[in-house]
Write a structure and sequence with these properties.
5 strands; single chain; 57% helix; binds CO-5-methoxybenzimidazolylcobamide; 9 helices; Rossmann fold
Length: 210
């Protein structure tokens, strides 16, 4: 079994004590950190999602897999994050209210930070008012980034986007993403940008703030 397969299996089966060592071993073998992330861990989470959908596993197993992926990402983090010496400005990011998923948002946050932004991560289940108040306190923020993983919390993203637009606060660009989000939905809610993954989110953030 390849190192990537071992990592994927560790994430799928929630072997949180093993995953760190496996990721270190894969890095020592010279494997690309992005391949370890995408082909090892993110693919494994898709398998976890499929198994959940088929009722082969339940929320506790999904949670353990998520914890395992987080441990793996911790080891990978220094290798994913570049060192940016410039400051491109502030980026406020969070998962919209009602939604507790944060692995993808954390990756987006990491990539945007390594692109040179000062990231203010508000966490998960973020009320609309928290976004508004953070923006009021940081009127120089260049980007507000919203993440959402559930179809049932897409209305919360729409609500947050609408509140930000009518807040009278200007000078920032709104970007959105997450598994159920599409370009069409992003256009509908008036977002300035949408991307499908963390690496392209960092590229988009730079483009929007330029
Ligand atoms: Co949940 N969950 N979950 N879950 N979960 C999904 C999303 C689901 C697709 C599983 C399934 O049924 N196949 C399904 C949603 C179905 C739907 O809405 N249509 C689902 C469900 C139903 C639920 C619950 C309702 C289950 C229940 O309680 N009955 C519940 C809801 C809780 C809540 O939020 N209120 C729930 C709970 C959980 C856990 C807490 C157990 C756990 C999350 C733990 C955590 O995040 N700390 C969990 C997990 C782990 C998943 C899956 C298996 C994996 C998610 C993940 O981390 N993926 C997921 C299935 C799946 O995704 N295939 C599933 C890896 C991550 C790197 O990818 O988050 O997509 P992702 O992020 C990507 C892109 O989307 C993008 O870039 C990231 C990196 O490349 N991206 C952005 C994300 N945000 C972006 C922002 C951007 C740009 C790009 O710009 C701002």
């Amino acid at each position: 079994m390849s190192k990537i397969q071992e990592i994927a299996q560790a994430v799928e089966t929630g072997k949180s004590k093993l995953v760190g060592g496996l990721v270190e071993a894969a890095l020592a073998e010279g494997l690309d950190p992005l391949i370890i992330l995408n082909e090892g861990m993110i693919n494994a989470m898709s398998v976890v999602g499929e198994k959940f959908q088929k009722s082969e596993i339940f929320v506790p197993e999904m949670l353990v897999a998520a914890r395992t992926m987080k441990k793996g990402v911790e080891v990978l983090k220094p290798r994913l994050a570049g060192v940016a010496n410039i400051s491109l400005g502030k980026c406020i990011i969070g998962t919209v209210h009602g939604d507790l998923h944060d692995i993808g948002k954390n990756l987006v946050s990491l990539m945007i930070e390594s692109a040179g932004f000062e990231v203010m991560d508000l966490g998960v289940d973020v009320p609309v008012d928290t976004f508004i108040n953070t923006l009021k306190d940081n009127p120089d923020a260049k980007i507000v980034a919203l993440s959402c993983l559930l179809t049932t919390t897409m209305p919360a993203m729409k609500e947050t986007a609408a509140a930000l637009k009518i807040s009278g606060l200007g000078g920032f660009k709104l970007m959105v993403g997450g598994a159920p989000i599409t370009q069409e939905f992003a256009d509908q809610i008036g977002a300035d940008g949408y991307t499908t993954d963390a690496a392209s989110a960092a590229v988009l953030a730079k483009k929007l703030s330029a």
